[in-house]
Amino acid sequence: MPAVEHVALVIGNADYKEAPLRNPLNDVHDVARVLRALRFEVFEVTNINRRKMIETVNDFGTRLQQAAAREIARQLARHVAKLLTGVKAGDLPIERPMKLELVINLKFAKQIGVTIPSEVLMQANKLLR
After folding, report:
1. Per residue in 77-113, is it b (16+ CB within 10 Å) or e — as a string?
2. Please, which residues have CB within 8 angstroms of residue 99's CB and are 6 or more apart in sequence?
3. Can you tell me whether residue 105 is helix, strand or coil?
4. Domain ranges of the chain
5. pLDDT, tens digit (0-9, with 9 covering 90-100), for 17-27
6. What DSSP string describes 29-62?
7. How many whole angstroms from its chain centre is CA 117?
8. Over 80: is that where the pLDDT of 8 sits?
9. 66 vs 7: CA distance, rounded Å
10. Which end of the chain is more exposed for a tag (fewer CB within 10 A), N or C?
11. Residue 129 contacts by C-beta under 8 Å, 6 or more apart in sequence?
12. Is the CB of residue 7 less than 8 Å from the CB of residue 63?
């Protein structure tokens, strides 16, 4: 069974206006390091402005779509390989691509003074309030 791709976005800002974290940059680096050790591809950004936040989230979304496309290609290749070895098409299992979700914690964003752009909110699968 092929490895599933794991992709994470970790954002930290040392200049939150409200509810400042004690060590946001160290926290971001620590979380990113652990995720990398777990074989995640990590988008790690710190101290970014709103424009860069939107750009980063859009880039992250594009990367998630690429991961999903690769998973579909892997599934197709497995099916073709089985067909070439004589398995009947009707005996192939039905598979679906891995599920990708964008979950946004609005409560936390509000606590730290971050406004999530509507373009990003519209792409979210789930909003935590």
Report:
1. eeeeeeeeeeeeeeeeeeeeeeeeebebeeeeeeebe
2. none
3. strand
4. 6-128
5. 665 666 677 78
6. HHHHHHHHHTTEEEEEEES--HHHHHHHHHHHHH
7. 17
8. yes
9. 11
10. N
11. 106, 107
12. yes
Distance between CA 73 and CA 77 in Å, rounded? 6
If we measure between CA atoms, which residue out of 35, 27, 30 comes closest to residue 9? Answer: 35
In single-letter form, the type of residue at position 107 comes to K
Quick one: which of 87, 121, 89 has its CA closest to 105?
A: 121
pTM for the predicted model, two decimal places: 0.53
4 vs 88: CA distance, rounded Å: 26
Query: What φ, ψ does residue 25 adopt, rounded to 5°?
Result: -70, -40
> Do 96 and 75 meet the contact criterion of CB atoms below 8 Å apart?
no
